[in-house]
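Response to reviewer comment R2.3. The reviewers asked that we include at least one raw input/output pair. We reproduce the pair for Peptidase inhibitor family I36 here without editing.
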Amino acid sequence: MRKTMRAAAAFATAAAAVTAMSGVAHAKPAADPWAGCPDGAVCVYPQNQNPAQSPSLVLYSYGPHNLSNQVGRHWVLNNQYGGATASLCTGYNGAGCGAPIAEGTGVYADLTPINSITLNRP
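Raw output as returned:
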């Protein structure tokens, strides 16, 4: 009976150690909110808001995001992490995309010809 209890206690201790280590290994990389843009997001700011202060559009999911009523100059900030990029595209559904915007960077762009923004996996 004592052997069974010791074996059970040893197993529980080992399982707790594995769980603790796996939580650290999968921790999200440190990213900071930037100009009101949450960690892991791409943000679009209101027209002519310079400097960028509070986003009017916050995008989280990978893939294309169609825009509407976005004309004139806007800040677009990529606050994603892990090498994810974003692209401004002249077509809907991610068609005709320009150069990727690297994580931790932004562009002050005329969104009049832009019809979608893609969030690209690393």
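Confidence is low (pLDDT under 50) at residues 1-30. The first strand starts at residue 41 and ends at 44. Further pairs are available on request from the corresponding author.
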